[in-house]
Each structure stands twice: as C-alpha cells, then as structure tokens.
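Suppose you are handed a protein chain with no further information: no name, no annotation, nothing but its sequence. What can you learn? This example shows the usual starting point.
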Amino acid sequence: MTVRYPRPLRPGDRIGVTSPSSGVAETLRGRLDVALGDLEARGYEVVVGRCMDGSTHLSAPAAERAAELTDMLTDPTIRAVVPPWGGETAIDLLPLLDFERIGRAEPTWMVGWSDISTIITPLTLLTGVATVHGNNLMDTPYRTPEGLKSWLDIVAAPRGETFSQTPPGRHRCGGWDDWAQHPGIRDLTLDAEGTWTRLDGTGDVEVEGRLIGGCIETLGHLAGTPYLDTSRLAGDEPLLVYVEACEDNAFSICRHLHGMRLAGFFDRAAAVLVGRTRAPAGRTLTQYEAVLDALGPLGVPIVADVECGHVPPHLPLVNGARARVVHTAARSEIVQTLA
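A reasonable first move is to predict its three-dimensional structure. Written in structure tokens, the prediction is:
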C-alpha cells in the first residue's frame, strides 16, 4: 500500500476537534480554550464537534464518536483532525469507523498519541494515509524545546519535505502541570537529564525504514487483527517500529510485546525505538529488561528513551514516513521525509 500524505495546512484551513475517546471536563475547559485560541492565532478556523463531554471516560456513545470522526476525516473542508488528548477505550471505535469511506476521501491529517494511537495506527495501515503520533491539542500551547518539532510544523510541511529532530537532553522527572489552576501555562518543566539509550548492545546505529507504532497498552490488544497488519504498509520496505509504555508494569509490557512479536507486528522491523517511560518495574524485571526479553530475538537495534512516549517533551513521528535514525556517542537524530 502506497503511503499518501495530506496536503499541507495553510492559513484559512479548517481544523476539526473531536474526542474519539475521552472528552474535556469542565474544570479543564480553560486549557481547551487556550489551545483553540492558539490554532486560531495561526490563521486556522476551528470546528469543535459535539463529542467533547468530559463527565466520564467517554465523550459520547461509540456510534456517535465514530460517526463524528468519520465525518471530519471525509469532509473536504477540514484539513486536519486533532483530539484534545487520549483516554482509555478508543478500541470500541474500530469496528464502527468507515475505513473504506475514509480511504476514498482526500487525505486529512489526524494527530494524537496515547489512546489515539489505537486509531491513527490502524488508519495508516488500512488506508495508507499518513498520520502524526505527536502532541495532542491540550499539549499544543507548550513551547517546543530546541531540537524538536510541533505537530503544527509537520502538518504545514509540503509533501516531500525532509526534517530532522534531535533529543533536547532534558525531560520531565515526574508529575503533571495543573491545567485547572494554570490553563495558560506554556513552559514545560524539564527537570531531568538524559538522552537515548541502546539496549541491545553497543556501537553506532544508523538505520532507515518507514515509521509505524504507538502505545503498547493500546496496540497490544490489536495484535493479530487486521487493524495492526504491518504487512500492508508500503510493500516490503523495512520498518522503523516505535513503541512506548504508559503505565503498565514491566511484566504486562513484556507480555504485550511478546504477543505483538508473535503476531508479526515486528516482522519487518529494521530497528525498534522505545519511548521514555515512568511505568513501574516488576519485582524482578525492569522496563528495559521487559523490552529485551520480548524483542531481543529480533536481532535488530533497540534504542530506548526516545521522546515519543508519556514523558514530556514530545518528538512527533509520522506513521508511514520514510525515516533515518542515527544514534552514536556524539549524536542522536531522527530524520523524516514525507515521501
């Protein structure tokens, strides 16, 4: 399946906002307003959907969420769709989304991470449309650290564009900002040092392939289904597979990764990128050891502590994009090309 890229966003374009999983509680509407204002300040028109309720873990019944998302992704006047954030059970949308209709429509950018990877990864694999695993809408007001890109930079880039990202060398040690009390906060707290770590051995890494991946706890439940069939992506090109753990302990992560490997998700992997995590270790198993136990048999480079997980800052990755990863003692870099 050939990867198709939506056309770049331009001022005046419309951006759809809907919650395919969790909506926004009233106490956090101030942060939502700040994020929407930032989009409008860039010259975009924002269309906020009906599925936004934050009183429970779901913004609306599954059929309503699926219909609204499908409508936004097939509306020729909406050029990008970005949810406020993730949630818990976006998996209930998959049998209800009209992937054929979405695939026939002009490609539209969809952006998100965490539970949203339950949608964007199958979306790329089933339709060939590139998606962005990056900042959610509520993250958008934060200033982008040096070396990284915002999702807004990426969706505005022309087809064929090549761009580089490098780790800033700092990340957040723990905790989250209180958006209810400080809805306009823009400075990320990056109070710990650290860069990428090779898990499978020593030596330099330089490898190329197409990007695909997402959150282990959500994608793990799709292993072996058509929604996570990486054989559909861009013929027989090698893949750069990225995964990240949100909160499950090391034993659960190990089991998920074993299942994904046995189901073929990593069959074409030329390397695996693992997001930095604060998820707990097991009594006798660390998160690093969980990854190595499950994925070490692949015999490919495994690079951990990449900024593609639940520990800020965020390094957006484009599902379907060609990429080159370099990791040496002197330099770490990922270069993506929208081709």
